[in-house]
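Write out this protein's structure.
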Amino acid sequence: MALASGINPDGSPWFLAVEHAGVAAKLGVELAEAAVNPPAHFKGAFAFATQAELRAALSRAFHLARSLPTFPLAQYEAEVAELGNTVVERIVKERVGQGYFRRALLDYWNGRCPLTWISDEPLLRASHIVPWSECRSDSERLDVFNGLLLVAHWDAAFDRGLVSFDDEGRALLKPTLSEEALNLLAPDRARLLPLDDAHRRQLAWHRERFGFSE
């Protein structure tokens, strides 16, 4: 997935080469957003001035690789391969799948709600955009781009269709929300969701499903 090398004592850079196209693309965006002078990026490789920067990028690449399609699906399919289609077995499959989905979202979103930056794991929820029961396949159910890692009150509002997000990642709220709910959600302080095109396709379904107009 990734190869790191370099000789720093003489001033030459450290390099990280990433084979997974999705990981390379996401890592490139994150590094560019996080640094005033981002590392050089060419053909799926990154150059870093220090070993510490290289280690941080390597760790992030590892977590992204665990979350992006189709790794969570492969893990899920291996674990449930011996299960049938009884009511009990379907419940077990959903529980196992939800566990893999949550871990994938924690990896992808770097362990924090992208709206609030809250990173207390007990407060974070794995929010399906298209719900588990309405997904067309296990591939969609376990797709990290069909999910958001939201703090509990945002998750509850999103799940019930009281909030959604536009293609720029801005929160859209139903006018029926009370002043108290708006104060809790504090949409004016919420960050923009950093969305991939695959997120946008799923969110278009969510907006239509719950009657949002942008």
